[in-house]
């Protein structure tokens, strides 16, 4: 079935006053896991009694751990089975089922299902047509009901959004997959009116499956400008929507009045009520949050901050009024009034937050690429923080060794290419290097340098960090 594309005009409403960012203090309790792995994804049930974590960290092994006593004791595996290892898996997401089995999604097109003792029960191809694992897919998973999961698949390296894009319902009970292919070509034509010679590969900024029949995403579209050739189309952001994935009809909603052409992040509670988060400038400055109650047709600006440099994303709801969100790799935020005001959570956790789950409106469990997780408990407001003492957080470079390019992730800071220097092992600085900064990632094109060891120096304010990269 071919998708139908509809374009809808959007209206954004504004209110007159907005709350300033506040600060709340949180204590940190570290929960150690006796493994060699690094945990980046987390899922919980029963208010944190059952905790499942998984991850892999570059040269570290794939790892999976499960606790059913609030993290007091763990079952864990550091090295995946020989059957799985032949696929060179990289765990990227996990969910706990109704009967507390663990479903893990890898980036090589497989679902792995483990029982309570972490014994492998099943391996399942997500897309039987792609058994050679030619592509790397991105996933959004969402538990629907009765041990069923929805999975959105997108080919990351496609010259278009992906002619193979699908939304699938995976039924754990029968280990069956019901897949709906999407007509992406007509969708692309609406977003990109220019001649093919001007076409550039694009991705969704953010995507979410709200239930078994609702899909949202944000991305770039190009709008013709009066009096100018089509090649000079203006870049704008838009919301794309499918109301019923069993009968996929695309709706494209231009966000013509938002302040920025930068990334737009979303969170929808259902098919009508949601949030859109972006920032005023392309330099990740000055957050803006909009709210919709009609599925994205009309938006109300409910929060803005012209003093701080951050953007909120990865929203999760604790209750009817309390939301949490992250910003970059290191900061967590909370709103207790449905997004109209926000507080930054200040704690002694000096690591890059990779995944988090909510125990209640005051308590979080955080995974941060270590062989432990952290329990954060909010315990009161504080008046201010000294931003000059904020530490620079960066991830180890990957891949290691590198061949064509290397990536380093950083927190939600304003970094520019001039803040980054690259040296060879003898201390000589490399000039005229191609360095991109994209969505909290530093990407160095190392294809032109000789094999060897290089040092990348990164400065932020008065702090600086140096990391080692091996190029082969």
Relevant terms:
Methylamine Dehydrogenase, Chain H; mainly beta; 2 helices; 472 residues; 47% strand
CATH architecture of the largest domain: 7 Propeller
Q: What sort of overall outline do the alpha carbons produce when their principal axes are compared?
A: globular
Structural class: mainly beta
* Total count of helical runs of at least 4 residues: 2
Q: What percent strand?
A: over 45%
CATH domain class name of the largest domain: Mainly Beta
pLDDT < 50 stretches? 129-139, 156-164, 197-201
- In what order do the strands lie side by side in the largest sheet? 24-25-26-27-3-30-29-28
CATH topology of the largest domain: Methylamine Dehydrogenase, Chain H
Total strands: the figure is 36
Distance between the termini: 46 Å
CATH superfamily of the largest domain: YVTN repeat-like/Quinoprotein amine dehydrogenase
What number of domains?
A: 2
Radius of gyration: 22 Å
**Largest sheet properties:** 8 strands, mixed
Average pLDDT reading: 76
Helix content: under 10%
Oligomer: single chain
């Amino acid at each position: 079935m071919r998708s139908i594309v509809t374009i809808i005009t959007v209206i954004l409403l504004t209110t007159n006053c907005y709350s300033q960012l506040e600060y709340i203090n949180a204590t940190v309790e570290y929960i150690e896991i006796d493994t060699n792995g690094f945990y980046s994804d987390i899922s919980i049930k029963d208010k944190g009694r059952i905790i499942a974590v998984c991850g892999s960290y570059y040269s570290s092994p794939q790892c999976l751990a499960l606790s059913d006593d609030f993290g007091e004791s763990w079952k864990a595996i550091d090295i995946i089975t020989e059957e799985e290892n032949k696929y060179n898996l990289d765990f990227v997401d996990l969910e706990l089922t109704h009967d507390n089995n663990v479903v893990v999604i890898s980036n090589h097109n497989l679902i792995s299902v483990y029982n309570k003792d972490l014994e492998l029960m099943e391996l399942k191809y997500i897309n039987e047509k792609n058994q050679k694992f030619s592509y790397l897919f991105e996933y959004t998973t969402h538990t629907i009901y009765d041990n069923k999961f929805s999975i959105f698949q997108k080919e990351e390296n496609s010259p278009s959004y992906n002619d193979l894009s699908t939304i699938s319902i995976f039924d754990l009970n029968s280990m069956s997959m019901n897949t709906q292919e999407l007509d992406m070509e007509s969708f692309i034509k609406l977003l990109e009116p220019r001649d093919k010679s001007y076409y550039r590969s694009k991705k969704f900024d953010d995507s979410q499956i709200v239930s078994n029949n609702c899909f949202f995403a944000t991305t770039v579209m190009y709008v013709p400008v009066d009096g100018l050739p089509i090649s000079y189309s203006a870049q704008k952001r838009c919301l794309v929507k499918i109301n019923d994935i069993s009968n996929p009809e695309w709706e494209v909603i231009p966000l013509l009045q938002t302040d920025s052409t930068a990334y737009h992040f979303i969170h929808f509670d259902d098919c009508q009520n949601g949030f859109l988060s972006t920032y005023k400038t392309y330099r990740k400055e000055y957050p803006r949050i909009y709210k919709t109650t009609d599925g994205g047709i009309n938006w109300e600006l409910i929060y803005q901050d012209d003093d701080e440099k951050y953007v909120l994303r990865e929203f999760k709801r604790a209750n009817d009024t309390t939301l949490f969100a992250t910003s970059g790799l290191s900061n967590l935020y909370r709103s207790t009034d449905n997004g109209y005001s926000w507080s930054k959570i200040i704690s002694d956790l000096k690591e890059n937050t990779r995944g988090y789950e909510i125990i209640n409106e005051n308590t979080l469990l955080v995974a941060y690429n270590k062989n432990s997780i952290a329990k954060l408990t909010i315990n009161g407001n504080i008046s201010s923080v000294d931003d000059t003492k904020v530490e620079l957080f960066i991830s180890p470079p990957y891949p290691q060794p590198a061949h064509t390019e290397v990536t380093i992730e950083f927190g939600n800071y304003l970094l520019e290419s001039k803040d980054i220097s690259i040296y060879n092992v003898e201390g000589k600085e490399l000039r005229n290097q191609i360095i991109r900064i994209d969505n909290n990632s530093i990407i160095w094109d190392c294809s032109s340098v000789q094999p060897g060891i290089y040092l990348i120096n990164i400065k932020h304010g008065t702090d600086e960090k140096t990391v080692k990269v091996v190029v082969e």
